[in-house]
Specification:
Helix 1 runs parallel beside helix 2 and helix 5 runs antiparallel to helix 7. By secondary structure, the protein is of the alpha/beta class. The protein has 8 helices and 18 strands. Strands 5-2-1-6-7-9-10 form a 7-stranded mixed beta sheet. Strands 12, 13, 14, 15, 16, 17 and 18 form a 7-stranded antiparallel beta sheet that branches. A two-stranded antiparallel sheet has the order 3-4. Helix content is 25%, strand content 28%. The protein has 2 domains: 177 residues, Rossmann fold (3-Layer(aba) Sandwich), CATH 3.40.50.170; 104 residues, Methionyl-tRNA Fmet Formyltransferase, Chain A, domain 2 (Roll).
Length: 316
């Protein structure tokens, strides 16, 4: 039986990862009084402004939306103060929150972070976990403090990473797990029963922001490492390689630890649905790839439409 009063919440979040958490709060007994999102960005060929994923959810629910260009400005801080929120909730907002903002809610601010802290603090925890080939990750609900992702932990939940899952797959699963865990923590905070566990800073690792340059394929890596990079650099920038002067984006791969007597990047099989490339250690089977500017093709479609033969060399 719930005996505590419902809380007034402000939600800070921008991309798809934040949508399940926002939706869960909107369906809860607590009151979401505003969404704070990053400004809308131009997208598509026409470069028209498109609402952020969380903004669209908030508008559909009739929730006020704040999109400050600079979150440190007094104009925004005053507007946030006027909301009289009890607790701030953050999920992939995308900017570091200043001390002046953190001090406003009486119950502070909590964050839905897509890793098992203290591992993978930073901007790209899901992508880095997949690139590193780890077997499991998770979600941590923590208090927001000045230092990046270093606040005390309120709850954690673990999720395995399957060998062929992409960062998109994993992030979607974590977003749903995080939403459920967030509701549990908020109820504990409302009831005064929440327990906080400090992080072990000595065990912390950092998940740096993904860059476009990381998509350039290095065939001198082991096949397993290339496979993990293909999985992890989705949906952007994707791993790319050149063949016969043309650039291709790799969408799905498999790997075999058995090495072959061929130079890294050399095609060793090209028939049926088998497009297999040598690496420094093992072979990489390309399952889906995309000629630049065209649609994604299965390996069978690609081999049927292009003159590909063993001995040809994929280059970075």
């Amino acid at each position: 039986m719930v005996t505590s009063a419902p809380l007034r919440l402000a939600f800070f979040g921008t991309p798809e990862f934040a949508v399940p958490s926002l939706a869960a709060l909107l369906e809860s007994r607590h009151e979401v009084v505003a969404l704070v999102s990053q400004p809308d960005r131009p997208k598509g060929r026409g470069q028209k402004l498109q609402p952020t994923p969380t903004k669209q959810v908030a508008l559909d629910a009739g929730i006020p939306v704040l999109q400050p260009a600079k979150i440190r400005e007094d104009t925004f801080l005053d507007a946030f103060r006027d909301l009289r929120v009890d607790l701030g909730v953050v999920a992939a907002y995308g900017k570091i929150l200043p001390d002046a903002l953190l001090a406003i809610p009486p119950m502070g601010m909590i964050n839905v972070h897509a890793s098992l802290l203290p591992a993978y603090r930073g901007a790209a925890p899901v992508h880095r976990a997949v690139i590193d080939g780890v077997a499991a990750t998770g979600v941590t609900i923590m208090r927001v403090v000045r230092e990046l992702d270093a606040g005390p932990m309120l709850a954690r939940v673990t999720r395995p990473i399957a060998a062929d899952e992409t960062s998109v797959d994993v992030e979607g699963g974590l977003a749903r797990l995080g939403a459920g865990l967030l509701l549990e923590v908020i109820e504990q905070l409302a009831a005064g029963t929440a327990k906080e566990e400090p992080q072990d800073d000595r065990a912390a690792t950092y998940a740096a922001k993904i860059t476009r340059e990381e998509g350039t394929l290095d065939w001198a890596l082991p096949a397993a490492a290339i496979h993990d990079r293909v999985r992890g650099l989705q949906p952007w920038p994707l791993v790319s390689a050149r063949l016969d002067g043309h650039r291709y984006l790799l969408h799905r791969t498999a790997h075999d630890p058995q090495s072959v007597a061929a130079a890294p990047g050399a095609i060793v099989e090209a028939a049926g649905d088998r497009l297999v490339v040598a690496t420094a250690h093992g072979t990489l089977q390309i399952l889906q790839l995309q000629p630049e500017g065209r649609r994604v093709l299965s390996s069978r479609e690609f081999l049927a439409g292009y003159r590909i033969r063993p001995g040809m060399i994929f280059e970075p």
